[in-house]
Amino acid sequence: MIILLKDKVNENQVKNLTNWLEGIGFGLHISKGQNHTIIGLIGDTSRVDMDLIASLDIVETVKRIQEPFKSANRKFHEDDSVIDCGGVKIGGGNFQIIAGPCSVESEEQIVGVAQAVKASGAGMLRGGAFKPRTSPYAFQGLHEKGLELLSEAKRVTGLPIVTEIMEANHLPLFEDVDVIQVGARNMQNFELLKELGQTRKTILLKRGLANTLEELLMSAEYIMAGGNNNVILCERGIRTFETYTRNTLDLSAIPVLRRLTHLPVVVDPSHGTGHAYLVKSMAMAATVAGADGLIIEVHNDPPHALCDGKQSLTPEQFDELAKGIQNVLPFAVR
Amino acid sequence: MIILLKDKVNENQVKNLTNWLEGIGFGLHISKGQNHTIIGLIGDTSRVDMDLIASLDIVETVKRIQEPFKSANRKFHEDDSVIDCGGVKIGGGNFQIIAGPCSVESEEQIVGVAQAVKASGAGMLRGGAFKPRTSPYAFQGLHEKGLELLSEAKRVTGLPIVTEIMEANHLPLFEDVDVIQVGARNMQNFELLKELGQTRKTILLKRGLANTLEELLMSAEYIMAGGNNNVILCERGIRTFETYTRNTLDLSAIPVLRRLTHLPVVVDPSHGTGHAYLVKSMAMAATVAGADGLIIEVHNDPPHALCDGKQSLTPEQFDELAKGIQNVLPFAVR
Amino acid sequence: MIILLKDKVNENQVKNLTNWLEGIGFGLHISKGQNHTIIGLIGDTSRVDMDLIASLDIVETVKRIQEPFKSANRKFHEDDSVIDCGGVKIGGGNFQIIAGPCSVESEEQIVGVAQAVKASGAGMLRGGAFKPRTSPYAFQGLHEKGLELLSEAKRVTGLPIVTEIMEANHLPLFEDVDVIQVGARNMQNFELLKELGQTRKTILLKRGLANTLEELLMSAEYIMAGGNNNVILCERGIRTFETYTRNTLDLSAIPVLRRLTHLPVVVDPSHGTGHAYLVKSMAMAATVAGADGLIIEVHNDPPHALCDGKQSLTPEQFDELAKGIQNVLPFAVR
Amino acid sequence: MIILLKDKVNENQVKNLTNWLEGIGFGLHISKGQNHTIIGLIGDTSRVDMDLIASLDIVETVKRIQEPFKSANRKFHEDDSVIDCGGVKIGGGNFQIIAGPCSVESEEQIVGVAQAVKASGAGMLRGGAFKPRTSPYAFQGLHEKGLELLSEAKRVTGLPIVTEIMEANHLPLFEDVDVIQVGARNMQNFELLKELGQTRKTILLKRGLANTLEELLMSAEYIMAGGNNNVILCERGIRTFETYTRNTLDLSAIPVLRRLTHLPVVVDPSHGTGHAYLVKSMAMAATVAGADGLIIEVHNDPPHALCDGKQSLTPEQFDELAKGIQNVLPFAVR
User: Fold this and answer.
1) Is the per-residue pLDDT at A169 higher than 80?
2) Taking a C-beta distance cutoff of 8 angstroms, is the pair C269, C249 a contact?
3) Of A7, B160, C101, C170, which has the fewest beta carbons less than 10 angstroms from its beta carbon?
């Protein structure tokens, strides 16, 4: 971290600052120029509150050289993390497709979809039981009943299950869940992240709608700071001015994240685009760009889905997509 | 709500849709054009899942005519709501300045600031005890101890207190708090909103960093749907590409919200700009534009604030600001 | 186009509107509901000023059913357009890589790069002679001299040349240029677009930094309205809040545009990401997603490039990229 | 400017860089830390291509200390610039309201509006003759005829006239125009800016829809670099995700620009919000925030305006607004 002081600062104030920095354990490298004094901090600056320093009266700007995340940082963990998801591995060359409906609606629906996607090669089953909806009047999911139906589908097919949590108090209900998803709107629900850090469950952390990749990594850091290193990152589209798509899928997030972190990166082209006709091309592009996995919405009857039917594939479309993925996976850039 | 069907749809499918809509209680007005069929819904469409209808195979687009929020809607509640905040009123011509430090740091600090801002005319005291921070390694607030110090400052000065909640489980600690703030990052933490809807506490709901005003009103609706109508809305700046300011304060939100809703609207120019030198001009502009109140960060020693010192005013600067507000308040556009 | 009138409008005003609409040649389909009157326009609404109608006192909203672009619309031209670029074809299954330096710097540089990229399979040569730069003090290109050097490289290698125009007055200098590029900042320089519509040159139109795909198509429409149908669209990244990349490359633009228009779509992963290490993965992803071509920055000595060296590949890196493209091209989703 | 070099760089490469920097006239202050070497540049860095240096292989990052604009910079020109507009002054305490219709439509219209707004206190008349429109099929203005009608209105009322230019070739037609406007979409049409820099006309430069204030100032710098210092800056709303307003008016731009530059700053609340009902509150807020002037759309018959009627005030509404401005002008924060 480099601290650039303002012109003509009081020597006493500088002394106060340097004493304080040394007091909290940093080595300092001070360089006085004609107009500006620069202080370089030597030590672990990920634990420093950069905003606090930037706000000091005598400081012009502060610039990080190291990234502010540490447990998630590839610099301190060169190899890809391989994360266990109820017996299925992801990361480090293990590519997985997670498929299933937006919402769990009935036993027939969820078991039927689970069997279909398994037959096409999906490695995990997704399905929402607790649904974050903009309107309090919209369908909010089957809750406990939905989790039970997911367990039933897991019992029948053997597929590990992935589903979203919206509140730490619900954790006891998620015992049979293999991968707990944190949705985009909760990416910076720090209290929830802290609680998940206290578990050893695998967490699928989705990027917020207007969040940077550094903020995504800092949220992963919240979970890992509690001792839970089982984190999967998910790009699911960001908010832009474009209207033909629901969100803009940021596929460059894949190689950027792969450089910055050892955690697996999966892509959700269903939410990321909002339209079934865009899912296959974006899924294949994500695979070639080096993703560790995909999350795909599949519904046995998209027009009658209780949520997000517009972006769901039929089992037949999913089967075709899964075959396409196999064609390009050998050429993925990693 | 108007539903526009696609060209050449199957008559049976249309029948299915109209039967279903009538079954859930809507009157229908159907108009067949040369190419397109249009269905108008008559009834309370705020309780309809617009996305679900839009996702049907036979539907081209759906357009709301009514707003999707109801309890917050001025159409059904013409007069400004006047909200009680521990004995102090806001809204309907009652203008309030809420002032205080970003974080509660010590008894001396919070009581000192409270006395100073009261003397200058502030009607409420703000101060953070639970702080949402991007990094798990940054200062997160004094927690319970912070709430106790706020209570002490309230006891000494009589000012009602405003402070942020980050998790519903903490509610028992907030008994002595007069106004509970929901921060920008939790604006769509729907489970928290639902829990707050079960209380009768006054809630100050901040707009999310990349959220629309309709989304803000839908989040207010979550609280009100639980029966708690004591909601104050807060514009605190949105994320844009501009870098000279921390956020972009959207002052047009004031007259837009005042037209759409009867709830009071306050503005936070401190977070909204991120720089002390911008606070006075934006506070005065917000007042003239018709805001019901302001939230201003004031710290007795900004350069040593543990958080957001860059944007805090000194008590002297706040006093000058408060005088400026009095000058323009009579000319506010309302 | 559907016009929704406000509640309780004056019958005379409605009559005025319908007379005017019929007068300019539309058939009307009018439907009166309990509260709302809806007017459907029958005819070519791409030539109607939607904003003008929306601004009328009696109009609640206007909704297009048809897209506002016509010449570029795939509905009226089902087959892919195949565009000639100095003897090389693009579109309709003809995939092309356009490669070369950001700026033309010297004969040795441009001829050297041209020979290298041709050997690796590039179909066209790019290089900037007129450079749009944010600062008036930055290097602005070699201008006429740069165009001469491009012609020399074309003479030596036979590669058609692609270069940017910034002002219609420069057109006479572009006689030997095969494809004239309109940069992102000029996407809505409508006077320039009109002038280019008067030529029969092939135009490569880049999407603006914060423009929607509909706006891009409307700008193409400006060129085509003048009679010049030789237009290639280019996705080159949009401005978002992300900072690890210079822009956010929107690869979903490929399948969206391919559905909306018959014009070829190329992708620029060099400007779209701003970093050489991201170019290969994004180029391969764009290919799989169905792009008709790529634009790649290649420089013989990236660290000494006078512009954008950070994102340029070496000829060796480009050769590897070109081989990767061949691997995945057969699996492209189209 | 501070250049931070990467870890373990080759001494020869550093030598090359420092020699080059000294060769182009900079004094250097070099500081070697344990891991990092920092080079401080002494001299006029506004003329340095920061991107070029950042792209060098051995450079980690580059940080400006000085702003990249010079002629527009308040540091080198402490006093407010006072700009002449056909005899009317703006800036340095001279507050002006520019009012008139979006488009010039007829002599009766433009002269009538001119007389009305003059009577209410407007200092200049605006009206569009060349209109930038997204669609080539929308009304594009009366062109030469429109300019003639503006001159006629000027002759009758004595009000200086403000109107938009879209192409440098049209300059001869603008001889009688007092203030030439550059629209948001042309803010980075650098060739046009350079041509305007060669004139001594007063230029009203509007901020682009997704541009930062630094980019706006760099575009002003293009004009001033040619020797034309008669530049007025205009905030007219930026593109955000909000949909209740057409754009988001960034009023914090006023105090930010007033700190950074000596040029006058005016605000356009009509385009900035897109709705007549928002204009008065935003105009008054802009005034209190310290703007040097306002641009307000006024039309004698808004519902029949050929363009942007939705956001136009009637002469009566404008008169009321002008009175409101007088009430708050004495309290403006400057």
Assistant:
1) yes
2) yes
3) A7
Give residue ranges of B with CB < 8 Å to any D CB.
Answer: 210-214, 238, 240-245, 248-256, 259-260, 272-273, 277-278, 280-282, 284-290, 324, 327-328, 331, 333
> What are the chain D neighbours of A29 within 8 Å (beta carbons)?
33-34
Distance, CA of C89 to CA of C81 (rounded, Å): 10
| Nearest neighbour of B212 by CB, restricted to D243, D253, D255 | D243
What pLDDT sits at residue D43? 78
Task: Give the residues of chain D that fall short of pLDDT 50.
Answer: none
Percent of chain A with pLDDT strictly greater than 70: 97
Give the CATH class of B74-331: alpha beta
Q: Which residue has the tokens 């230029």?
A: D203
CB contact (8 A) between residue D191 and residue C166: yes
- Contact at 8 Å (CB) between A124 and A88? yes
Per-residue CA distances from A141 to A138, A164, A315 (Å)? 9, 11, 22
Closest to B289 (Cα-Cα) out of B242, B325, B239, B237: B325
Contact present, C54 and C62 (Cβ < 8 Å): yes
Arithmetic mean of pLDDT, B218-222: 97
pLDDT band at C22 (very low <50, low <70, confident <90, very high): confident
ipTM at complex level: 0.92
Residue A34 has pLDDT above 80, yes or no: no
Domain with CATH 3.30.70.1140 in chain D: 2-63
Give how far Cα B203 sits from Cα of A132, B69, B199, B223, B238, Å.
21, 18, 10, 9, 20
Give the global pTM: 0.93
Model confidence pLDDT, tens digit, residues C239-252:
999 999 999 999 99
Q: Which of A270, A281, A292, A331 to mutate to test the interface with C (most CBs of C within 10 A)?
A: A281
Tens digits of residue pLDDT in C274-307? 999 999 999 999 999 999 999 999 998 876 666 6
The one-letter amino acid code at A17 reads L
Angle between helices B213-225 and B253-260 (to 10 degrees): 40
B242 → closest Cβ in D250, D289, D331: D250
Task: Judge whether residue C40 has pLDDT over 90.
Answer: no
Q: Quick one: tokens of A52?
A: 């606090």
Percent helix, strand and coil across chain D, each rounded to 5? 40, 20, 40
| A77-104 pLDDT, tens digit each | 999 999 999 999 999 999 999 999 999 9
- Kindly list the residues from chain B whose CB atom is less than 8 angstroms away from the CB atom of residue A169: 168-169
Pairwise CA distance, residues B77 & A110, whole Å: 43
Task: Return the residue of A nearest to C248 by Cα.
Answer: A250
Residue D95 Cα, gap to closest chain C Cα (Å): 30
| CA angle B195–B200–B203, rounded 5-degree value | 70
Q: Residue for token digits 């469409």?
A: B45
Quote the CA–CA distance of A253 and A268 in Å, as a whole number.
Answer: 12
What's the rounded Cα separation, in Å, for the pair D104 and D87? 23
Q: Using only the alpha carbons of chain D, give its radius of gyration.
A: 23
How many pairs of residues across A and D have Cβ atoms under 8 Å apart? 41
Q: Is D278 close to B252, i.e. CB distance below 8 A?
A: yes
- Average pLDDT for A195-223: 98
D93 φ/ψ sector (left φ>0, alpha ψ -120 to 50, else beta)? left
Which pLDDT band, with edges at 50, 70 and 90, does B50 fall under? confident
Tell me if the domain spanning C2-63 has CATH number 1.10.1670.10.
no
* Residues of B in Cβ contact (< 8 Å) with A139: 49, 52
Q: Do D259 and B249 touch (CB under 8 A)?
A: no
Ranges for all domains in chain A classified under CATH 3.20.20.70: 74-331
D320 token code pair: 């009321």
Those residues with Cβ within 8 angstroms of residue C144's Cβ, 6 or more apart along the chain or in another chain? C129, C173
